[in-house]
Amino acid sequence: MEFRQLQTFVTITHAESFSRAAELLGYSQSAVTVQIRLLEEELQVRLFDRMGKKTVLTAQGRQLLEYANRIIQEVNQAKSAIVQDTELSEPLHVGTLESLCFSKLPPLLGYFRSNYPKVPVKVTTATPKELIAMMEKNQLDLIYFLDRPRYNNNWNKELEVREPIVFVTSPESPLASRKGLRLVEILDEPFFLTEKNENYRRELDQYLESRDRVITPFLEASNTEFIIQMIRRNRGVSFLPYFAVQESVRAGQLAVLDVTDFGVAMYRQIFYHKNKWKTREMGEFIRLAKLDLT
């Protein structure tokens, strides 16, 4: 039994596909198939069943997975102990949201580039649901997102920071100087919102639905930076994390509305899967995220 066979085996369980595992590992699909066949012949068991387009573990496969994860973690721990004093150089793949990508990652990744130039960093943006699915399939090292507090026995949580969500508009809007606004007073304004059913937008819609009201946005977009640019140039309203707009507010380009009867907070969170070995590169990213560099 070879270590690379166990790595291939674990990757297939996350990807649920021989072809996807081959792509992630940089092998040909035939090489992956051969590795698993040799492993099955040595153990004299069948490790996978094909269910439609998915590849799922047999009972013997699930049993091997427990041992394989432990072996891989022990090997990674040994490697980490041996190379503790060497320069960081392993790849880092982070999954995050558009809003965090524009607001929180630039200073953090700038520090990485200056201090750890040998670390190849890849950033993938998606929704929280999509990021979690990718983490579960070992397609990301860690995920950094904004949502209601999430918990799962299969995840390690490394960060949870409360972040207010605010209504913003152009400083030229008559609403910008008003105090004690009620949500109903701004509903007729043109709204520029993130896509429906995602974290803070979902909270706003659910609150309005509970009061038999609804918002029909003038524009919906997944890119929060685009929304911010549109609000700066128009007298519309948006509902965004304060960290995403604070620079524009400080510069006098946006104004936070004083809406007193509705408030929401989300939480910046970092997770990685419990079966994932936390590399030094992951640890340093987490450390810097906790410092909240600006």
Automatic annotation (TrEMBL):
Q: Which PROSITE patterns match?
A: HTH_LYSR
Q: Which UniProt keywords are given for this protein, alphabetically ordered?
A: DNA-binding, Transcription, Transcription regulation
Q: Which residues form a coiled coil?
A: none
Report the InterPro entries cross-referenced here: LysR_HTH_N, LysR_subst-bd, WH-like_DNA-bd_sf, WH_DNA-bd_sf
Does DNA-binding show up as a keyword for this record?
Answer: yes
**Pfam families for this protein:** HTH_1, LysR_substrate
The residue ranges of the HTH lysR-type domain are: 1-58
| Alphabetized GO MF terms | DNA-binding transcription factor activity; transcription cis-regulatory region binding
CDD domains from the UniProt entry: PBP2_LTTR_substrate
Domain of life of the source: Bacteria
Family, as annotated: Belongs to the LysR transcriptional regulatory family.
Mind telling me what this protein is named? Answer: LysR family transcriptional regulator
Annotated organism of origin: Candidatus Lachnoclostridium stercoripullorum
Q: What is the lineage of its organism?
A: Bacteria, Bacillati, Bacillota, Clostridia, Lachnospirales
